[in-house]
Amino acid sequence: MILQLFSTFFVIFVLIFVGMITRHIKILNEEFTPALSNLLILVTLPALILHSLLTQFTKEMFLDALTLVCFGVLSSFVGYFIGLLLLALSTARRHLEDASKRTFLMLCAFGNTSFLSIPIGFSLYGEEVVVKIILFDLGVSIIIWTFGIKLISSGGKNRAGESTLKNILNPGICALLLGIFMVMFELQVPSFFIKACGLLGSATIPMSLIATGALLYDTGFHRKIKWKTIALLSIGKLIFMPLFFIFIVLIFDFSLSLKKIIILESAMPSMILSTVLAEKYGSDSNLAASGVFWTTLLSILTVPLFLSI
């Protein structure tokens, strides 16, 4: 089992490495990388979500859907409190400015719960998990664009309040809500539309991995690295976080599929968006970039181990 997991992860990270190489040799330049990300976010991912919902989702899964959203919210706060605990117990806090502490907490709180977890989940468990991953990510997104922005903003001031709803209701979430509406009200959808969504959506997995590699290249290289802080972050995000949720899913009588998604999402490295938010709201973008890069790299080892439990 564990060899199969590592084999799957090797394939996934080969594609991420392809993204890094193509960015390095300028096949993906500064203009094309954002365009690739936009194509993914605005077109192929919503198509994949719609196809998954229209072919895999049923009314009976609605309770599981609410559970996953709640766990997405919970995971953000659990990560935040793990970060607070690590800062309180570590001597590293003495060497960190307030901006770096805020960034550290954001890196602990929010994982890469869509860009990376969708390809991993799809590769390991099939298309039926895509909807569940997006539902978990919806819970995370709600906290990112409310509490998260307030956390990362200089002085704790939420300067993005007017765009909160717009950010939460991104194209992927809109596709999710539209698909659930279609299923719940048993709307008849033409087969050609479902097939078109499936064809478009099939491009999401390789594109998201290549885009992840390109974005990691931009954020992770040529940065001054605070090794002690990165080590502390990696322990909190990649070890304590999944261990907590493994304990939780063992307590509750969830379905095996639900348990797999919760453990997968809780084991994800820090979200790539952290670098953008840290730079935009006056926090430590250098720490954010190196934190995202190294937790993603180390997750090659940690995620398969936790998924094998």
TrEMBL record:
Presence of keyword Cell inner membrane: no
UniProt subcellular location: Cell membrane
InterPro entries: Mem_transp_PIN-like, Na+/solute_symporter_sf
Transmembrane parts of this sequence: 6-23, 35-54, 66-92, 104-123, 129-147, 168-187, 193-217, 229-252, 287-307
BP-aspect Gene Ontology terms: transmembrane transport
Keywords: Cell membrane, Membrane, Transmembrane, Transmembrane helix, Transport
GO cellular component terms given for this protein: plasma membrane
A Pfam family hit: Mem_trans
Membrane association type: Multi-pass membrane protein
PANTHER family, per database record: AUXIN EFFLUX CARRIER FAMILY PROTEIN, TRANSPORTER AUXIN EFFLUX CARRIER EC FAMILY
Family from the record: Belongs to the auxin efflux carrier (TC 2.A.69) family.
Protein name: AEC family transporter
Species for this entry: Aerophobetes bacterium
